[in-house]
Amino acid sequence: MNEAAKLRNIGPKSAAWLRQVGLRTREDIAEAGPVEAFMRVKRAGFKPTLNLLYAIEGALQDCHWQEVPDARRTELVSAAEAAIAGLPAPRHKPPAGPVRTTVLTADTVPERPDEA
Fold first, then answer.
1. Cα–Cα dist 61/56, whole Å
2. Structural domain containing residue 53
3. What is the mean pLDDT of the chain?
4. How many CB atoms lie within 10 A of CB 44?
5. What CATH number has the domain bearing residue 70?
């Protein structure tokens, strides 16, 4: 049975993310806490928004995510930002080299053997 999908505020996509990081039941999520649950999803490579953080908190408090008090949202965001700051920096590809523009004129267009 998929309990995460039955939690208030948790839609199919969020439930799938939570399952994939090992949080399958309300008890699993409560034990991890909203910030750790959010961070597990983020560390797994998904791109959750803060709405997931609020949704998890709302699910644990059995209220709509928009009813999470502003003070609590601020606490959650501060804790998530601190946790995100502790993540390793993403690896980026090196920037591409300089771009050269070539202007073709009638004198510089190569001949094509198929146009003979």
1. 9
2. 4-85
3. 86
4. 13
5. 1.10.150.20
Band of residue 1 on the pLDDT scale cut at 50, 70, 90: very low
In a domain, residue 27? The reply is: yes
Residue 66 lies in a domain: yes
Reported pTM = 0.72
Number of domains the chain contains: 1
Q: Is the dihedral of CA 68, 80, 24, 15 positive or negative?
A: positive
Measure the CA–CA gap between 54 and 10, rounded to whole angstroms. Answer: 10
Rounded CA gap, 83 and 92, in Å? 21
Contact indicator for 63, 82 with CB cutoff of 8 Å: no
What the block records as the tokens of 64 is 């709509």
